[in-house]
Amino acid sequence: MAAHEPIVQAKQYTSVKPLGDRVLVKTKTTEDKTAGGILLPTTAQSRPQAGEVVAVGEGRSLGSNVVEISVPVGAKVIYSKYAGTELEFNDTTHLIMKEDDIIGILDTDDVKDLKPLSDRILIKVAESEEETAGGLLLTQASKEKPSVGTVVAVGPGPLGDDGSRTPLSITPGSSVLYSKYAGSEFKGSEGEYIVLRSSDVIAVLSS
After folding, report:
1. Which of 73, 152, 200, 203 sits at 20 to 30 Å (Cα–Cα) from 36?
2. What parts of the sequence cross the membrane (predicted)?
3. pLDDT tens digits for 98-121?
């Protein structure tokens, strides 16, 4: 995956108006401490993937229809790790990105409350197996990354050519198998979660 674009300096400007289906997001400040309170060096800080929408474009053109941006100004959002172009103005770092780069709306600090957008799905990842098939206990580092989980929430569905959305066939509560290296991973208060496209779900599981 390509590295993120360098920051564009626009300190002489006081406002930015996104065009088309783009949105302007004020990025959340990178945390400088671990959960245990340990200060992190700059090189160890992870790039934030959260922020607040401060401006939106006029929407996307689909044939003769214009579909307005579905994310309102003021919404707290989570976005793809390498989304958009960084823009520095008003002494604050912003990102200007496509609406489709926004993974979901998050009104709290816990990813389990995420409201996915478009055709994205929020899944609570199943815990790794503690033993191999032969009964050998696994260390944390050697545990196989699971690709099974439970659907927590689903987006409204992808946009069609006429501007309407097609609801997803996958529903909350379903157990699913998904592509091993798909999506964006997050840690929540109740475990690990992943957000991915519905096309990355391989099968629905039942007992």
Report:
1. 152
2. none
3. 999 999 999 998 999 999 999 999
